[in-house]
Amino acid sequence: MKVHLVYEMAKVVKGNGVYTVFVQMVHLLGKKGDIEVVVNGEGRGDVYHSHTYGLLYYLRGIGYKGRRILTVHVIPDSAKGSIPGWQLMMPFIRWYFKQVYSYADVCIALSPMVENVIRNLNARTRIVRMFNPIPLEFWSNTPQRRNEGRRKLGLKEEDFVVLGVGQLQGRKGVEDFLDIAAATPEAKFVWVGGRPFGALTEGLIRISTRIAEATPNASFPGMFELDDMPMIYSAADIFIFPSNQENCPMAPLEAAACGLPVVFKDLPEYRLLYEYPYLLASTNDQFIQLVCKLMNNRDFYDEGRKISKQLLEQFDEDKIRAILVGIYTELCQNSIGK
Q1: How would DSSP label each residue in 218-232?
Q2: How does pLDDT run across 274-310, given as a tens digit for each residue?
Q3: In the chain, N or C: fewer CB atoms in 10 Å?
Q4: Are 47 and 195 members of one domain?
Q5: Shared-domain flag, residues 164 and 272
Q6: How far apart are CA 86 and CA 81, in angstroms?
Q7: Residues 129 and 156 in one domain
Q8: Is residue 338 part of a domain?
Q9: Do 310 and 320 sit in the same domain of this protein?
Q10: For residues 138 and 144, what is the distance between their CA atoms, to the nearest angstrom?
Q11: Residue 47: strand pairing partners
């Protein structure tokens, strides 16, 4: 079987979770030898599977009617705090995503929240719920990776490091991260990420001003290549994720796979998504309290690592690959039978 896998901005936009999922799914599908992967229009496939939803999503999907799949990484609410002027654009955004979802014969919903959104938009598509896979071997933590990551980030071995990862936009909670850092001067706070969409990123001036005025214990080294990210996570002691809206976020799971305790913001979508317990904070004060407790209580720190390990059981890549191959096979068989 041959799968045409698409991420439209592969040569331009790399600093986000969708790109990470795409790259790792190309590897996941190809590793057993039963699937041939065609990437970004470099040939024809038996089925068409896109991770993005721009003009090329439609153009490359021509000729695949009945065999089009879209992994839904983005919903209309993802625009809130992500792009300038999202309030005025929301009616168009909702209309456009309805068309995007309806173009696919199968929409893969990465969480119950995403599934509900697709249904509420009345999109004409079949919905399959499936999570993003986490390749544990790629994200493993080693002493060598920790040392190299600290060297890249300019950190000392004795530093207690709190990591955040994400685009520099309001939705990701960058300003909350800065407030938490200012209240916890005994730890080093490092935010890795940038603005892959440039001037189309929400809060460009506001957040840049906040970063310029940040306390000395907060640093923003920018974006790193995907292959460098395991050592960046490994350099940290804990990971906090103050994002205000997510669907099936990759960064906290990557951090968990690197053995870090992870503190999530308490969002309703997580309560629907995760099958196992996780550390959560509703306010910045609660984030601060958990950071301090993880920093000063070794037993609690070890418990946090156990919680991260259990959380990953839901995202086993072999199970997720089997679901994907089942979808591909079914669509191909249905197409032949017509």
Answers
A1: EEEEE---GGGHHHH
A2: 999 999 999 999 999 999 999 999 999 999 999 999 9
A3: C
A4: no
A5: yes
A6: 7
A7: no
A8: no
A9: no
A10: 14
A11: 3
Three-class HEC string of the chain: CEEEEECCCCCCCCCCHHHHHHHHHHHHHHCCCCCEEEECCCCCCCEEEECCCCHHHHHHHCCCCCCEEEEECCCHHHHCCCCCCHHHHHHHHHHHHHHHHHHCCEEEECCHHHHHHHHHCCCCCEEEECCCCCCCCCCCCCHHHHHHHHHHHCCCCCCCEEEEECCCCHHHCHHHHHHHHHCCCCCEEEEECCCCCHHHCCCHHHHHHHHHCCCCCEEEEECCCHHHHHHHHHCCCEEEECCCCCCCCCHHHHHHHCCCCEEEECCHHHHHHCCCCCEEECCHHHHHHHHHHHHHCHHHHHHHHHHHHHHHHHHCHHHHHHHHHHHHHHHHHHHHHC
46-55, 70-79, 192-201: least confident range: 192-201
Q: Which domain holds residue 71?
A: 2-133+316-333
Q: Supply 93's token pair.
A: 């955004």
- Pair (177, 248) in one structural domain: yes
Summarised one tens digit per residue, pLDDT across range 132-191 is 999 999 999 999 999 999 999 999 999 999 999 999 989 999 999 999 999 999 999 999
**Contact present, 136 and 208 (Cβ < 8 Å):** no
Q: How far apart are CA 85 and CA 78, in angstroms?
A: 13
Q: Taking 90 as the threshold, does the pLDDT of residue 328 lie above it?
A: yes
d(CA 46, CA 93): 31
Q: 336: pLDDT confidence band, cut at 50, 70 and 90? A: low
Q: What is the pTM of this model?
A: 0.89
Look at residue 138 and tell me if it is in a domain.
no
Residue type, 321: R
Q: Are the C-beta atoms of 206 and 230 separated by less than 8 Å?
A: no
Tokens of 76: 């209309």
Two structure tokens written together for 329: 């096979």
CA-based nearest residue to 218, from 145, 168, 147? 168
